[in-house]
Design brief:
Two copies of one chain form a homodimer. Chain A is mostly helical and 146 residues long. The first copy, chain A, has two domains: 98 residues, Winged helix-like DNA-binding domain superfamily/Winged helix DNA-binding domain (Arc Repressor Mutant, subunit A, Orthogonal Bundle); 35 residues. In chain A, 62% of the residues lie in helices and 9% in strands. The longest helix of chain A has 21 residues. The two termini of chain A are 32 Å apart. The interface between A and B is large, with 61 and 61 residues. Chain A binds a DNA duplex (30 and 30 nucleotides) through helix 1, helix 2 and helix 4.
DNA sequence: CGCAATCTAATTGTGTACAATTCAAAGCGA
DNA sequence: TCGCTTTGAATTGTACACAATTAGATTGCG
């Protein structure tokens, strides 16, 4: 147990977290290609499929993404015809993003993705629930202390 | 329980994984700024601190990164003077990356990072171990089925 | 009212990520 | 040995991520 033990890759929790996240996103890609979305575009669409309309700030809070990421991404979704981007008349600083009919249709085609992905992680129901709880606990702590 | 249940953000395991990974990397940044490394550069240096020398292919296998990511990253580490990049004489296709004295010094300054990060996740020893095991199990499964 | 402080997006710049392609070196079979 | 295949990096192109800054709109306070 030397003084550099903490600097070994295998003693880090961050590295497998980072690696697992990337690998899973990579696994999504073939399925997402079918609906011509990237992973980030997909999670943005997921929010809209549930809420129909949201402003950029709220979307960023939900996805933990900032405007530097969302602005170009939403412009791309708009150019594909899946969302509209309209300034709020009550407050011109706010940009509302809303689902279009074409974006709503996409939901139909996307609904087969989650069940097909589910098996890739190879975790039992219990393990998945445990992981889920730990991840949200960690996210809460990471954000709580600023 | 409608047919779109799977498309809700809160029913995904991928999203908290993705979010937690990003948030934790973000938490590293202030500490990594002290040694002027990005997170990806840091994990590459961690490998070198343990192994002194490695070729690009092996490094990519360890970190789950490809040459498109590693080539510019290693050039940057070379320009900072932390590593050398030399073609293997036995096989000119292979590029060996080795730690320089300056890179070795950096290990001293970096060793305080892991303990300072440790608390951010706010998980108990047991929870961290559970998460660690589940993550490596998932990574194994994600890669096993190609 | 007037204007400074605040708020929300957009922009800019740097650094990943990765698929696909390219290119040179090495291995290999007829 | 000559071509063919394979291999390992590098390159190219697209798409995030995020810090820092900018720009415009709104709010609030004196």
């Amino acid at each position: 147990m030397d003084e550099y033990e903490g600097l070994k890759l295998e003693n880090q929790l961050c590295f497998p977290l980072y690696a697992c996240s990337k690998e899973l996103v990579r696994r999504y890609q073939p399925f997402l290609d079918e609906v011509e979305l990237t992973y980030t575009q997909y999670i943005a669409m997921m929010v809209l499929w549930q809420r129909e309309k949201i402003n950029v700030k709220s979307l960023g809070e939900l996805l933990y993404l900032d405007s530097g990421t969302l602005t170009p991404l939403l412009k791309k979704l708009e150019s594909k015809g899946y969302v509209s981007r309209v300034r709020a008349s009550e407050d011109e600083r706010v940009l509302n993003v809303a689902l279009t009919d074409k974006g709503r249709e996409l939901k139909q085609r996307a609904k087969s993705i989650p069940p097909r992905i589910a098996g890739c992680l190879g975790l039992s129901e219990t393990e998945a629930k445990t992981m889920y709880a730990l991840l949200y606990k960690a996210i809460g702590n990471l954000r709580a202390e600023q």
